[in-house]
Specification:
Pfam families: HTH_1, LysR_substrate
Distance between the termini: 46 Å
Organism: Dactylosporangium siamense
Protein name: HTH lysR-type domain-containing protein
Helix content: 25-40%
Radius of gyration: 23 Å
CATH superfamily of the largest domain: Periplasmic binding protein-like II
Structural class: alpha/beta
CATH topology of the largest domain: D-Maltodextrin-Binding Protein, domain 2
Number of strands: 11
Family: Belongs to the LysR transcriptional regulatory family.
Largest sheet: 7 strands, mixed
Shape: globular
GO molecular function: DNA binding; DNA-binding transcription factor activity
Strand content: 15-25%
Order of helices and strands: HHHEEHEHHEHEEEHEHEEEH
């Protein structure tokens, strides 16, 4: 019988690439990780690792076992979720991750609802870039997260995770006068930080119009971005949620999707008021869209705490 804890180390080695990285993630020493993986090889009756200089790689047998590990972990998560469903009341920690605009517009009302309806839940929230979420879900330091990607910058599926759609947003060009994207070839731009999804999305949207944007400023906070636009410092691309007021409990009755599996549209084509530009800023809708999803470990979507969270956010 294969030991699940050792199997998790093998899976993490496939994800992280080095024994040192796996050791750091689990607060083990590299020697302890190596010993556990050697024990797993004995249990499997096959060589799972091959030495390559100072490092190791997975053998074909190791790669097969690591791939099947995801099915094992998902089954365990489903069993845990089913067991939790037999208990009365929701208790214990629920660790949530979210990106900044979701923190401002979606979570306050949802957290207030959860605290009122399920006082036994211990809610904690980390604000972080969606690119950091998969690793945090896999290592168990998050239980559920709000993530986003763009139709121009899709994120590859992760076999360790599952997602459910929440909403699709219109992206807007923000400037001090009416402009379309093609007319911004010679404008100065306010871009998100290099390496972020928003930065990559803006680059690709401009490339589709035949030019590269010339960056004057870099800012990741959309309130700052819009303030700089209003000050005549450049043009920028911003999402719908950046143009919404902060969430409040009175907004809990805002429109939700007709089916839990259908994303709710926002913006002029969806429910709710049209986005409001700050004074001095003109908004032009673009073709590109941002898609927000729930993300959680495979098999945990039916866990009562996660189901309660997703329901509260949809209501918000």
């Amino acid at each position: 019988m294969l030991d699940v804890r050792k199997l998790r180390l093998l899976r993490d080695l496939a994800d992280r690439g080095t024994i040192a990285a796996v050791a750091a993630a689990h607060n083990y020493t590299p020697s302890a990780v190596s010993q556990q993986l050697a024990a797993l090889e004995r249990e499997a009756g096959a060589a799972l690792l091959a030495r390559t200089g100072r490092g190791v790689t997975l053998t074909p047998a190791g790669a097969v076992l690591a791939a099947h590990a995801e099915e094992v972990f998902a089954a365990l998560e489903r069993a845990t979720a089913a067991l939790a469903a037999t208990r009365t009341g929701l208790t214990g920690p629920l660790r949530i991750g979210a990106f900044p605009t979701a923190m401002r517009t979606l979570l306050p009302t949802a957290l207030a609802t959860l605290a009122r309806e399920h006082p036994g839940l211990d809610l904690t929230v980390d604000e972080l870039d969606p690119a950091l979420v998969p690793a945090r879900l896999r290592d168990g330091s998050l239980d559920v997260a709000l993530v986003h990607d763009y139709d121009l910058v899709p994120i590859a599926p992760d076999p360790a995770l599952e997602t459910a759609p929440l909403l699709d947003e219109t992206m807007y060009l923000a400037a001090t006068r009416p402009l379309d994207l093609a007319a911004c070839r010679d404008e100065r731009w306010i871009l998100a930080g290099p390496g972020t999804l928003c930065h990559t999305m803006t680059i690709r949207a401009c490339e589709a119009e035949g030019f590269l944007p010339r960056a004057r400023h870099h800012a990741d906070d959309f309130v700052t971005v819009l303030t700089l636009v209003a000050a005549g410092q450049g043009v920028a691309v911003v999402p719908e949620l950046a143009l919404r007021p902060p969430s409040s409990p009175s907004a809990a009755a805002a429109a939700a999707p007709s089916s839990p599996s259908d994303p709710a549209p926002v913006g002029p084509s969806g429910p709710g008021a049209a986005p409001v530009a700050p004074a001095g800023v003109v908004l032009t809708p673009l073709r590109t869209r941002r898609r927000t999803r729930f993300a959680y470990r495979a098999g945990t979507g039916a866990h009562p705490s996660i189901a309660a969270f997703t329901a509260a956010v949809r209501a918000a």
